[in-house]
């Protein structure tokens, strides 16, 4: 039996994913086939255009088919290929970490602009903390984009921290310290940080139950929904960790230090109310490219 042809395999895999209701079935099939062939997607598409009748080795076809079948169950492409792009760089991900989202890049963009865009606040040596670092994509990107700063990446998950450490080595970042700790508790000295960033769990229990299958069944729930104490009566509202982080940042930041937190698009007014306090100035909510409230920003008062 002749080996399957490239264009036929792509068409068959796309059809299978479409039948299972997978988002962007063609894109998923392209990425997984490209990964199996050791190509990036652009090179794969060129190959499809120039040599559509290229036969696929039976072993490669079987490997690609296995990934496609896993994708048909809803498993995210990033977990299947083991990485996801963030801020123009590839970061390793596992089932212990969230898949980095494009909207989270806004948090990094805001921090970089605050410390480097004219009039730059301070380009001297400084310190930042990333609470709930996960894959480390935020902390590592900040370390690369703000090389005059040293950082601490904190997560409660040992497995996630190992992924973050591996990503730091991959990108030759040595200016980060990694700490396994509950980021809602004090983990730094008072007034020791110039920048406090977090992409914490901010989804309510009710919202979580309505999330798509791909997120709810494959990404870590502990990185999405705030944990509740064993004796808690009400389900998580999604604001618990945000409130705790505002308190932590108020203590940890130096005067004129910057707080940035990602949040849910319906939480803007509630988070802004948390920042209407004498310890904060320039408090505002920043919308993402879709026009949705996404980032809470505030500057620690100099008083």
What does this protein structure show overall?
The structure is a single chain. The chain has helices spanning 6-19, 25-36, 41-50, 58-72, 77-81, 105-116, 137-145, 158-170, 205-209, 213-216, 240-252, 268-274; strands at residues 83-86, 89-92, 126-131, 149-155, 176-180, 193-198, 253-262, 280-287, 293-300. The chain has 303 residues and is of the alpha/beta class. It folds into two domains: 6-74, Helicase, Ruva Protein, domain 3; 100-300, Vaccinia Virus protein VP39 (Rossmann fold, 3-Layer(aba) Sandwich). Strand 3 (126-131), helix 7 and strand 4 form a beta-alpha-beta unit. Helix 2 (25-36) packs across helix 3.
Give the end-to-end Cα distance, rounded to a whole number of Å: 78 Å
What is the string of SSEs from the N terminus onward? HHHHHEEHEHEHEEHHHEHEE
The CATH topology of the largest domain comes to Rossmann fold
What's the number of extended β-strand segments?
9
Describe the global form. Answer: elongated
Q: How many helix segments? A: 12
CATH superfamily label of the largest domain: Vaccinia Virus protein VP39
Strand neighbour order, sheet with most strands: 5-4-3-6-7-9-8
């Amino acid at each position: 039996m002749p080996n399957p042809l490239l264009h036929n395999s792509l068409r068959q895999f796309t059809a299978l994913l479409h039948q299972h209701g997978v988002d962007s079935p063609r894109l998923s099939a392209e990425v997984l086939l490209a990964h199996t062939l050791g190509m990036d997607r652009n090179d794969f598409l060129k190959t499809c255009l120039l040599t559509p009748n290229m036969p696929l080795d039976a072993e490669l076809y079987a490997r690609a088919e296995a990934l496609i079948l896993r994708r048909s169950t809803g498993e995210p492409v990033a977990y299947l290929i083991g990485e996801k792009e963030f801020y123009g760089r590839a970061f390793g991900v596992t089932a212990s970490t969230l898949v980095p989202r494009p909207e989270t890049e806004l948090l990094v963009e805001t921090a970089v602009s605050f410390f480097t865009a004219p009039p730059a606040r301070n380009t001297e040596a400084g310190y930042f903390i990333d609470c709930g670092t996960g894959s480390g994509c935020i902390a590592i990107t900040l370390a690369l984009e703000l090389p005059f700063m040293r950082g601490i990446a904190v997560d409660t998950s040992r497995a996630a921290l190992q992924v973050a450490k591996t990503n730091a080595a991959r990108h030759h970042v040595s200016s980060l310290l990694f700490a396994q700790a509950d980021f809602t508790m004090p983990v730094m000295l008072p007034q020791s940080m110039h920048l406090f960033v977090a992409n914490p769990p901010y989804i309510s229990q009710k919202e979580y139950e309505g999330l798509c299958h791909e997120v709810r069944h494959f990404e870590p729930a502990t990185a999405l929904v705030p944990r509740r104490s064993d004796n808690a009566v009400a389900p998580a509202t999604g604001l618990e960790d945000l409130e705790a982080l505002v308190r932590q940042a108020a203590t940890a930041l130096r005067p004129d230090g910057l707080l940035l937190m990602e949040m849910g698009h319906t939480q803007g007014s509630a988070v802004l109310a948390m920042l209407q306090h004498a310890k904060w100035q320039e408090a505002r909510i920043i919308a993402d490219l879709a026009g949705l409230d996404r980032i809470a920003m505030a500057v620690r008062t100099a008083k």
